[in-house]
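Late entry, written up from scratch paper. The run itself happened at the end of the previous shift, but nothing got recorded in the book at the time, so transcribing now.
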Amino acid sequence: MRKVSVAVAIAVAGSLRITAGAQQALPTFKSAVEVVPISAVVHDRRGRMVTTLTAGDFEVRDKGERRSILDFQVDRTSPLTLAVLVDTSGSMKVGAKLTFAREVLKFLAADLQDGRDEVSLFTFDATLREEQPFTVHPASLDVALSRAEPFGITSLYDAIADTARRLGTRPSPRRAILVLTDGLDTSSALTAPEVSALASSIDVPVYVVAPVPAIDYAIQTDRLASGGAGPSTDLRDLAIWTGGDLRWVTGGVDAALQTRLIVSELRHQYLITIQPAGEREWRPIEVRVRDRRMTVRARSGYFSGRNNGSH
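Output as recorded:
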C-alpha cells in the first residue's frame, strides 16, 4: 500500500497547503489530541475481510517507532456516521451519472440501519452545499438529491476537505465519507495529497465510488494496477492514504455490491488507540499485522503536540 511521504507537512491558516521536504508548520484546524484513534480494515490476499484478529496481531509504527496499543475494540454494533458527497458538476451529465448516484443512495439506504446509523448529504460543483443535515433516516437522502441539476466546474478535492472538517466534529468513532463522482477535478485549490493528509489527520476514511462505462473499466483498473500517473491515480491515493478506497463500478448491480462492501468494512473496523508523540509535528503512522500475507488500510498520519495548541 502506498503511503504519504514522511516529509509531508501541513500549514492551515484559512487555507491548507502541504509541501514535501519543507520545514513543518503548525496547523490550526483542530485541538491537540490526548490519544490517537486509528480505525483499520484488514484483508487477506484474496481481498476478503479478516475480522477475527486481536490486539496482539497488530503493530503500529509512529514515524518508524513502535507504539504500544492503549485500547483495542472490535465492537460491530455501534452506529455509523457517514457523509455522502455527490458530484453535481457539468461532467456528471454525461452517461446519466447523476442517475447512477441516485441508485447508489437507494442501495446505501437499504444497507444502513434506520433510526441508528447517521448520514448526511452534500453536493458540489465549484462550491459545497449541504442538502440534508445529519439524520438517522437514510431514505431521506434520495429526496434531497432529487433537486440537484448537474452544472459548473468541479472542485472535488476542496469539497472532500470541507466535508472531512465537518465530519470531524461528529462524535462517532465509525465515520467515513462516501464520494460519488466521475473522478475529474478541474478547479480545486487543494491537491490530493493535501486533502488526504487533512482527512487522515482526523481519522476520516474516504471511499470513492466512480461510474465508468464497461468498455473503459479494464483501462482504469490496469492504469491503477500499473501505478501510472493521472487523475484516477491521485484519487486512488487520496482514498487509500485516509484508510478508504476507490471503487470503479460499471452499473447498478456492481454499485449495489460495492456499497454493501463499504458499509460492511465500516462495521468491521478494528478501533485502535495509541499515545501521541510529544513533538508538535505531522507524524506518519503505519499499521501492520503479524501475518504479512494480510493488508491493512488505516489513516496515514496525525498531528502531534499538546501545548494548548493544535495538532
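The helical segments are 97-111, 140-145, 156-167, 192-201, 214-226, 231-242, 252-267.
(Scratch paper discarded after transcription.)
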